[in-house]
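A reminder from the course coordinator: this example appears on the midterm review sheet, so study it carefully.

Given structure:
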């Protein structure tokens, strides 16, 4: 017999008596909910904002959401974008269904905790009922989204070549002596196409793959004889979903050299969209390592920015109340002697 808990909460709040006897409440199966959030587990779950390039929720479980591809995730609200709920006859069945559903979910364009949640559900400690309130703190680094491997980079470069979206690829040739070059984020990739296959050199690793089917935003790639289904979007970046992981690469082949963002090069920059709620420094101030410099509010959370070394403030470019974007210069510093 099912029970509508929300209905009974309302009835009890109105002063009605709960008329069900304990023996009438029948336990049937298990359900587990995961809250999908725009946040980066590798950066201490820093909230993220931006445009969802591709959204394809898993259809085997319940997903509560209001998303579409192209939706803008604002920095002004909570970072949660969907609830993913799986049911099973046992806890393990529900747990594994939810992990699989999260891995099958495609959300590209903005960093999320999707892969972290799936890894947590498959973690032996969680599976053995051993997870406590300290589980996240202990396992955050180990469960954080893995860095892209050579195969993911090779797939991204191949899709970039096959769709000819950038000028450096438009002179593509089947001549095996002709090598096309890409630079995705910080990784150099050399790519050749012959014998109906793409041959990629990623760093010191060779990867050979074939495109079995390609109809954007989906493709099927054969790698070492194993077919892999991937989803992708190419805009200003190359977004790729493969084997439960999400990646976003910048095509930096022709990008000019840039200074590293952050206080290490004397520049304190905003790590996210948000509103500045406090500025604790002014030009000429001497600051100690770890001192609070600027506080940014994003998605109902406050984030304090500091530097790991003593420094002197040479310029401040923001004031309380300002809206800032990722990479925006907040202050200039010089390292103290």
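Designed residues:
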């Amino acid at each position: 017999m099912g029970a509508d808990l929300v209905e009974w909460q309302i009835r009890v709040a109105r002063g009605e008596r709960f008329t069900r006897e304990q023996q009438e409440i029948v336990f049937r199966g298990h359900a587990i909910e995961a809250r999908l959030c725009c946040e980066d587990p590798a950066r201490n779950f820093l909230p993220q904002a931006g445009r969802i390039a591709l959204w394809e929720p898993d259809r085997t479980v319940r997903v509560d959401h209001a998303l579409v591809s192209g939706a803008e995730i604002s920095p002004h609200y909570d970072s949660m974008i969907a609830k993913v709920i799986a049911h099973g006859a046992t806890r393990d069945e529900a747990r594994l269904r939810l992990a699989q559903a999260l891995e099958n979910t495609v959300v590209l364009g903005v960093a999320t905790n999707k892969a972290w949640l799936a890894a947590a559900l498959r973690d032996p400690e969680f599976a053995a009922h051993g997870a406590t309130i300290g589980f996240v703190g202990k396992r955050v680094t180990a469960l954080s989204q893995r860095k892209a491997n050579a195969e993911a980079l090779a797939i991204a470069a191949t899709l970039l070549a096959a769709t000819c979206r950038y000028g450096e690829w438009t002179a593509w040739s089947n001549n095996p002596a002709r090598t096309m070059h890409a630079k995705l984020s910080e990784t150099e990739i050399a790519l050749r196409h012959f014998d109906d296959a793409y041959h990629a050199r990623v760093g010191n690793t060779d990867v050979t793959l074939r495109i079995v089917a390609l109809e954007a935003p989906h493709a099927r790639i054969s790698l070492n004889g194993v077919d892999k289904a991937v989803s992708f979007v190419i805009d200003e970046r190359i977004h790729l979903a493969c084997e439960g992981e999400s990646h976003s690469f910048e095509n930096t082949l022709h990008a000019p050299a840039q200074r590293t963002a952050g206080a290490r090069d004397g520049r304190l920059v905003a790590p996210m969209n948000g509103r500045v709620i406090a500025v604790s420094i002014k030009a000429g101030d001497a600051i100690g390592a770890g001192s609070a410099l600027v506080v940014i509010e994003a998605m109902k959370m406050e984030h304090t920015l500091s530097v790991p070394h003593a420094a002197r403030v040479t310029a401040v470019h923001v004031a309380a109340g300002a809206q800032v974007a990722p990479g925006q210069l907040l202050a200039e510093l010089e390292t103290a002697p």
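Confidence is low (pLDDT under 50) at residues 165-171, 256-264. The chain has six helices and 25 strands.
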